[in-house]
Design goal:
The strands form four sheets. A three-stranded antiparallel sheet has the order 5-6-7, with no helix packed on it. The protein has 396 residues and is mostly helical. It is 52% helix and 7% strand. It has a single domain, classed as Alpha/alpha barrel (Glycosyltransferase).
Length: 396
């Protein structure tokens, strides 16, 4: 079933959210604003990392643990590319050494999020500065990620010990964003196993995580012994049959990332379907609720999902032919969402706290990171700003 952009969605965004001239002014102002905040955070964080989300407006500081530390390092690389200021590069390079120690010792690496962790920290160091140590750390991370591939089920297990029956066979929509590390490893080494695993996983994600109406499951279980499909559910969404907004945003962007490496145009078509479903369920200010089933309610927004979606939409615009009838609509919506985030969700220079993008939701049912800044929301807002304001080669 094809998910189409509705007439109501088209009417809600009939043209540019702002004029090109006004947008350029806003982008310049936003860059100065964001770079000032990142400079402040760099001083405050030192060589530590912000935790996953703020607590009462402020990030607790941690060592290099959990799945989110690279979102801060990624901001530093983006800030260096935006400004040319070596203070950002120098701290990012210190982080590279930290990620090297982490993968060498296999500290807190029992997760598919190795893709996030190394694609935004060590891969940029290699691509931007030819840091060979960073390349080696990234390849070690790709090896560890490949170990999580279940050959019978054709999926990369999301979390936990591979022998844990409670975790075995679980794939989640987020993993599409982790696959670029595997594709990159094949490019670097010539070993096809990495890309083969990534392609196998994304095909299973396309088959089982996407419902007929183009909404998505957050998580799906496969039988790792027989390879048979089991069932889908949610860990962070409103209900098993609802559509968690961040998962939908991961899907919009993540399927496209596989297209960049494989050339499989089905991935572009999937991204379009997911984007249409997402855009058809936005509230008036264009920043989604934490679950798309809750549109029309007073449910909390998730600015981080909106920022991810902007990046996905902008990449989708890049990959579509000029003749595609929806291409201009996606561009307009990406700008409209970004402008709303900038005007209504970005932390002010005089505000307390040490995050960038307010009003994110991490995990509502466990009351974790609810209506706070999140490290991934901050990163994807800066990536969206980079995409809109200058030519940029993605780290993915």
């Amino acid at each position: 079933m094809l998910s189409q952009i509705t007439e109501e969605t088209l009417r809600a965004c009939p043209g540019p959210a702002v004029s090109p001239q006004a947008l350029n002014v806003q982008l310049r102002t936003a860059r100065e604003h964001v770079l000032e905040l990142i400079r402040r955070h760099l001083t405050e964080f030192g060589e530590q990392f912000p935790a996953e989300t703020c607590v009462q407006g402020k990030y607790p500081l941690t060592d290099n643990v959990e799945w989110t530390t690279s979102f801060w390092t990624g901001q530093l690389w983006l800030a260096w590319e935006m400004s040319g200021d070596d203070v950002f590069r120098q701290m990012a390079e210190k982080h590279v050494r930290s990620f090297g120690l982490r993968i060498a010792g296999r500290h807190d690496t029992n997760t598919h999020d190795l893709g996030f962790l190394y694609t935004l920290s060590c891969v940029p160091a290699w691509r931007l500065t030819s840091n060979r140590e960073a390349r080696g750390f990234s390849l070690l991370a790709a090896d560890a990620l490949l170990e999580r591939f279940h050959a019978k089920a054709h999926i990369i297990q999301a979390w936990g010990d591979l022998t844990d029956p409670e975790q075995a066979g679980r794939m989640i929509i987020d993993c599409n964003m982790n696959l670029p590390l595997l594709y990159w490893a094949t490019e670097q080494t010539g070993d096809p196993r990495y890309a083969q695993a990534a392609k196998a996983h994304v095909m299973q994600a396309a088959k089982y995580l996407i419902r007929p109406d183009a909404s998505t499951f957050h998580t799906y279980y496969m039988d790792v012994v027989t390879g048979e499909a089991r069932y889908g559910n949610t860990q962070q969404g409103y209900a098993d049959d609802s559509c968690w907004s961040r998962g939908q945003a991961w899907g919009i962007y993540g399927f496209l990332l596989s297209y960049l490496y494989t050339g499989d145009k089905n991935m572009v078509a999937l991204s379009k379907r997911l984007a249409n479903y997402f855009l058809n369920r936005l509230p008036e200010d264009a920043v989604c609720h934490w679950d798309l089933a809750l549109v029309g309610s007073d449910a909390l927004r998730d600015s981080s999902s909106a920022a991810i979606a902007v990046c996905g939409l902008l990449e989708l615009v890049k990959q579509l032919p000029l003749t595609d009838p929806d291409r201009e609509t996606y561009q307009h919506w990406a700008v409209k969402i970004f402008v709303s985030l900038t005007e209504n969700y970005l932390t002010g220079l005089s505000e307390p706290g040490n995050g960038l993008l307010k009003h994110s939701v991490y995990h509502l049912t466990s009351d974790k990171g609810v209506d706070e800044c999140s490290s991934w929301g901050d990163y994807f807002y800066v990536e969206a700003l980079m995409r809109l304001s200058q030519s940029w080669k993605p780290y993915w």
